Amino acid sequence: MFPFKWTEVQFVYTIAIWILIASLARILFSYLKFLTKWLPDSSLIIIVGLILGFILHLTSLNGVSLDAEVFFLYLLPPIIFDAGYFMPNRAFFKNIDSILLFSVLGTVWNCFAIGGSLLLLSKYDIFSIQFSTFEIFIFASLVSASDPVAIIVVFEEIHVNEFLFINVFGEALFNDAISVVLYNMFISFLARDLTTLNFWDYASRGLSFFVVALGGVAIGVVFAFATSLATKYTHGIKIVAPVLIFLIPYMGYLTAEMVSFSAIIAIAVCGMVMKQYVKGNITNSAANSVKYFTKIISQTSEIVIYMFLGLSTVSADHYFDVVFIAATIFFTLFYRTIGVLSQCYFLNKFRAEQFKLQDQFILAYGGLKGAIAYGLVVSIPAAVSAKPMFITTTIALIYFNVFIQGITIRPLINLMKIKTKEEKKATMTESVYNKYLDYMMAGIEDIAGQKGHYNLVARFERFNSSVLKPIFMRLQKREKNDFTSVIRSYEKLILEDALEKMKSRQNSTEISLRSFLQPGEDMEQLYTLFGEFLKERRDDDIQDDYFAEVQAHECENFGSELKEIENKDASIV
After folding, report:
1. pLDDT tens string 17-75
2. Measuring CA to CA, which of 332, 386, 400, 455 is 20 to 30 A from 225?
3. Which regions in the chain score pLDDT beneath 70?
4. What is the DSSP letter of 144?
C-alpha cells in the first residue's frame, strides 16, 4: 500500500538533512558564546561537515563532494548578488582606484611570483610529484586571488570598518575575473607545444582579461536596467516584483557564464546598479521582503558551501606532499604581503585617505582563499598528473585561511586597535552634509579646472536624475536642471559690487584696470561692455528667496547709481 521509494529522493533528502543539521548547529553555536568568540562560523560549519562526512563515509552514501557546476551555477550567485545589492556604492567608488590596483596588478603579481617560486623549487626535486610550467601556473592562478565568499563570512563577523572591508572585498570581487582569465589561459596552453607559442598567443590571452571584465560589467548594467524597467510596471501586480528582482539578475549571471564573461562581476554590478531604481518602484513591504529573502538564500548558500568543503575533505582522493603544502602557504602569505606593501606605498602618494601600517597588515593577512579556489582546482583536467596533490593543497590552504587566519584576525584587530564598523545609521544631518561636501568638492574641482572624482560623480548624478531615473522609475518625472539664470544673475551681482568698489577707489582702480587693457582699447569701451551687460538684468532671473531679497535691494539703488556713474569721466570708471 505504501511503496518505499528511498532511491528516488535519496540525494535531495540527504542534502536537506545536512542543511538542517548545519542550521541547528548554527543555532547551538549562537548559545555557545565562549566558542563563537574565538572560532568564526565558517570554521564551525566545516567541522560539522567533517563530522557528517565521516558518518557518511561509513555508510553507502559515501562520495558526496562539492561539484564545480553546482557551486558556480547554484551556490555562488546568491552570495555575490547579496554583496552587490547591499554594497555601499559611495565607499566603493571612492576607493575604486585602490580596488582596481589590488585586483589586477596584485593578482598578476601573486600568480607569477607563487608559480615561479614553486617551479624553481621543483628543479631541486624536493616535491614528490613533478609538474610542467603551465601546470604549476594553473595552480598558482587559482590560489593567487582572494575569495569573496570567505571574506564576506569572516570580515562581516569581526565587523571590520568600511574602508578595509570595501578594499578587501572589492579586490576579491574583481580579481576573480583575472584569476579565471589566467586559469583559462594556462589551461589552453596545456595542449600546445611550448616552442610553437608566439608573442600574439600571450598578448591575446592578456587582452582577454579586459574583455572578460568589461563584458561582465556591460551584462550587469544591461540586466540591471532590464530589472528596473520590469519592476516599473508591476505596481498593479506587486507580488511579481520580488520574483523579477531575483530572476533577471540570475539570468544575467547565466548569460555572462554562457559567453565566457565574468559572471561574478556581472551579478555584482547588476545588484549595485539596479538597487536605487527598484527600491523606488516597489512598496516598503516588498523592499523588506527582498532584503530578508536575499539574506536568507545568501546565508543558506554559505552554509552549504562550507558543509560541502567538510564533506569533500573526507570523500575526495588526496595526495599529501607536506613540503609542497608548506611552500604554497608560505609563498601565498609572503608575496601577498610584498604586493600589498608596495601597492599601498604607491597609493599613499596620491590618496587623501591613507593606508596606515595596521590597515596594510590586515589587507595582507585578510586575503583569504575559499570555495572558488576549490571549485577551480577540481575542474583541472584529469590529464594533469599533479591534480590530486593540487586538490589536497588547496583544501589545506583553505583550512589554514579559515581556521588559523580566521581565528587570529579578530585578536589581531583588537591588539592593533584598528577601528571597527560603527553599528549606527547615518543621521539626516550627516547625510545632508555628506551630499553638501560632495557638491562643494565638485565645485572646487571645477574652479581649479580639474576633472576629478567629485566632478565625475556630480555629472553622473545630474544625468541620472534627468535621464535614467525618469526612464526606470515609476514616479520619477523628467526634469531639466538649468542653472544658467542663477549663474548669470550671480555674475551680474559681482559686476555691480565691482562698480561700487571702483567708485570708492577711483585712482587706484583706474591704474589697475588700465594694466589689463589691450592696445586700441580704452576705459569707455570697457564701461560700455559692462553697462550693456548689466542693463540686461531682469527681475525674474533669480528664483530663490535669499537671492530675490538681494536682488530687490540692489535694484532699488542700481538705476540712480548707474546714472551717477555715467555723468562722470569714463576714464574713472
Report:
1. 877 877 787 788 778 777 777 777 777 888 887 887 777 777 655 555 667 788 888 88
2. 455
3. 59-66, 149, 152-153, 156-158, 191, 193-195, 315-316, 420-428, 478-488, 501-573
4. S
Phi, psi of 160, deg, nearest 5: -65, 155
Distance CA 304, CA 282 (A): 31
| Whole-angstrom distance, CA of residue 179 vs CA of residue 140 | 9
Measured in residues, the chain has a length of: 573
Residue that has been written with the C-alpha cell 544575467 in this structure: 252
Please say whether the beta carbons of 336 and 401 come within 8 A.
no
pLDDT at 552: 45
Asked if 138 and 69 count as a contact pair (C-beta separation under 8 A), the reply is: no
Q: In a 3-state reduction of DSSP, which class is residue 420?
A: strand
- Which pLDDT tens digit goes with each residue over 291-344? 888 888 888 887 788 777 877 777 667 888 999 999 999 999 999 999 999 999
Strand runs (DSSP E) across 90-144, as ranges? none
Long-range pairs for 456-465: beta carbons < 8 A, 24 or more residues apart: 457/93
Nearest to 92 by CA among 165, 154, 158: 165
Burial class (CB in 10 A: 0-12, 13-18, 19+), 63: exposed
Q: 71: part of which helix (H) or strand (E)?
A: none
